[in-house]
Write a structure and sequence with these properties.
The chain is mainly β. It is built from three helices and 31 strands. The protein binds 2-acetamido-2-deoxy-beta-D-glucopyranose (NAG). It comes from Triticum aestivum.
């Protein structure tokens, strides 16, 4: 072969190899949108257009008016946060803010719950960020919030104290509740690629009329009560709550509430359930559940019920609630008890996405949780 031809065939071989390894990166529809980009660190705001499900695209979180802010100081003053801290960027800094962290490992122990403002993105990519051992993250009456790439664990109820709220008012806090992330009356929120474990109360609570939420690519493990959608049987405003739970990994060592839903609608799609003790999906007050393309692996035959209905005492046991399973896979004896009929999520074109088959779920969720990304390379 002439040197030129040799070069040509070598190039061809390289291209073929690249195509082949590209196919090995088996990614879900959200990850495929940004993880292959080697410039993710200089084009962080691309992420905002990668969300799917009820949160829709987070287009309000990006653009020229957004302040890029880097957390360099792990300390926390809940009343007068210093510039450089997470609380300063998430609560105090005005306007639209995109928060990143200096590379390396950072442990942040919040002295009081962190109140996140509207139009705020917390982006842990490129750092190893642990919000741990203190209070958790609270979204109260806010919109357009993204939380991506954090480890949140060991959250505990904190003693009463004062904390600054968005807008600058200082509030007296009672004893907290020990939730990792709690939404109250908040909407258009995307919780993606976080690792949540071992907290005192819940890992993720969506409450008090919150809606239009997507919970994707997270890893929930070693915990009792994982995810609560609607906290009160009496709170009928939660009838309009709509939440997408997609591409998450639940377990090992989880007990219940993946999620537990009251009143609203949950589209639970392409999640990996690696065992549970009491149940995986439960609810009360006539919620609607569309379970699609999930992989449910029961841990034992005694803990095989995927579903649990919690009717009010003296009422029928949820026979008329719409809980539907389509394309789910069940291993180790897992059982999903269906009732009612299938109710579609009615996504618009910014929310809609194709569900994968349950056979792909293991690989689509294998990188669930906070990722290790380095600038200059695909993540
Ligand atoms: C599983 O659910 C069925 C009803 O669908 C119930 O009779 C049974 O007791 C449940 N099993 C456990 C271990 O909770």
């Amino acid at each position: 072969m002439a040197p030129k031809e040799l070069l040509l065939s070598a190039t061809l071989l390289l291209l073929l190899l690249r195509a082949a390894t590209g196919n090995l990166r088996h990614e879900n529809v959200i990850d495929r949108c940004w993880r292959g980009q080697s410039n993710w660190a200089t084009d962080r705001q691309r992420l905002a257009m990668c969300s799917v499900g009820f949160a829709g695209k987070m287009r309000q979180n990006r653009g020229h008016g957004v302040t890029m802010y880097t957390v360099t100081d792990p300390s926390d003053d809940p009343v007068r946060p210093r510039p450089g801290t997470l609380r300063y960027g998430a609560t105090v800094l005005p306007g639209k803010v995109w928060i990143t962290f200096q590379p390396g490992t950072m442990h942040i122990r919040l002295a009081q719950p962190l109140f996140v403002k509207s139009f705020t993105t917390i982006d842990g990519r490129g750092a190893d960020v642990h919000v741990a051992g203190g209070a958790g993250i609270v979204l109260y009456e806010v919109r357009n919030v993204v939380i991506h790439g954090l480890h949140v664990h060991g959250v505990r109820a904190q003693p009463p104290g004062q904390v600054v709220r968005p807008g600058g008012a200082v509030q007296n806090m009672d004893v907290g509740d020990g939730d990792a992330i709690r939404l109250l009356s908040s909407s258009k929120v995307w919780i993606d690629h976080n690792t949540l474990a071992r907290c005192e109360d819940g890992l993720l609570d969506v409450t008090l009329g919150s809606t239009d939420v997507t919970v994707s690519n997270n890893w929930f493990h070693d915990h009792d009560k994982v995810m609560l959608l609607g906290h009160d049987d009496q709170h009928v405003a939660d009838r309009r709550m709509r939440v997408t739970v997609a591409f998450n990994r639940f377990g090992p060592h989880v007990n219940q509430r993946m999620p537990r839903i009251r009143h609203g609608y949950a589209h639970v799609v392409n999640n990996f359930y690696d065992g549970w003790r009491e149940y995986a999906i439960g609810g009360s007050m006539g919620p609607t559940v569309k379970s699609q393309g999930n992989l449910f692996i029961a841990s034992t035959t005694d803990s095989a019920n995927v579903t649990r209905r919690m009717p009010l005492v003296g009422h029928a046991e949820g026979k008329d609630w719409h809980w539907h399973s389509s394309g789910d896979s069940f291993e180790n004896g897992a059982v999903f008890k269906q009732t009612g009929s299938r109710v579609r999520p009615k996504y618009n074109r910014h929310q809609a996405f194709p569900a994968a088959s349950s056979g792909e779920v293991r690989s689509l969720t294998k990188d669930a949780g906070a990722l290790r990304c380095s600038a200059g390379a695909a993540c």
